[in-house]
Amino acid sequence: KKSINDLDVAGKRVFVRVDFNVPLDGGHITDDTRIRAALPTIEKLAGAGAKVILASHLGRPKGQVNEDMRLAPVGKRLTELLGKDVRALPESTGDTVKEAVASMQEGDVILLENVRFHAGEEKNDPELAKQFAELADLYVNDAFGAAHRAHASTAGIAEHLPAASGLLMEKELDVLGKALAEPERPFTAIIGGAKVKDKIGVIDHLLDKVDHLLLGGGLSYTFTKAQGHDVGNSLVEEDKIDLAKSFIQKAGEKGVKLHIPTDAVVASEFKADAETRTVSTDSIPEGWMGLDIGPETAAEYADVIRQSKTILWNGPMGVFEMDAFAEGTKKVAEAVAETEGYTIIGGGDSAAAVEKFDLADRMDHVSTGGGASLEFMEGKDLPGVSALDDK
Ligand code: 3PG
Fold this sequence. Notes:
- It is a single chain.
- The protein has 14 helices and 17 strands.
- By secondary structure, it is an alpha/beta fold.
- It folds into two domains: 4-170, Rossmann fold (3-Layer(aba) Sandwich); 183-377, Rossmann fold.
- α1 packs across α2 (72-82) and α8 packs across α9 (241-254).
- The mean pLDDT is 97.
- The site of 3-phosphoglyceric acid has 8 residues, from loops.
């Protein structure tokens, strides 16, 4: 795979796929992390005299123009961050775009409109991929967050142009790849989130790699049930209980210490101001539901985390959006921030959690990918990455 460091970009038109899929609230960007994460690549290319053509998706407009999903606010933010004018175009193909590109000077940066306004983007339509390719001399993919999608601007385009990975893409692949391939041990993974269904692949793959696996979140109650305990009204995936049992068995065979919560904060209903109690997970009362790990579990997890050399975290320990059920996730986040081990936050909700507790700066790496980092941790090939392989 080539890096942008291997390319001679001076005077060249470079089509750069970035992931500017940022949260918007009435046209206002509420978190610009992904824009800032792409700056090193943009600055490097522009500084070397490239004509930088940025392309991204935003939201899921389903192949149609959607006024609420235009990239203009991103162009504005980018102009501020780069300290130079970034022209945001109202389209991503066609004559307006061709003319804008033709008038670019070395070091200029333009931003194409949301590529998902074209139905061909998500279908990886070869015709659309060709139209994107015709705008440029080189292709760079820096959109790690969208690398699990085989779309026209993340995969198809690479068939037409010399392709390379951007600096963010390289860093994400390097950090996550090293952690999985040659972790300093003990290697601990923390897996939380609502459903077992979404984490089957990652739990299975990590059981081949880690020394400790700490479980939390809604998914842990299916494991509690698999241990033979009643879990009251807690979230349980009845059809995944046998799978949970097989994971418990696999952990035993592999010598992995699988930690299942021993206590929980339970509530009378799923509400921020519900009545709560802390109970042992072998005696969750009928009618109550677990919404967070309890203090005993949090303390045990914090201990393991502090003694680990590599820590990978994906998924919150409880309903951290509600204060009454945030403590477990917070305690774990603090332990991850404090440990001397190398810490990786696998994007999505866990990234939002460390952001909420103001601890993001104290992590070694916070991935910009949600689905992409999850698929990477499952050991899957990412189409946006394999498209960059030397042909
Ligand atoms: C993300 O936010 O995870 C990426 O930008 C991918 O978005 P998507 O799930 O809509 O493809």
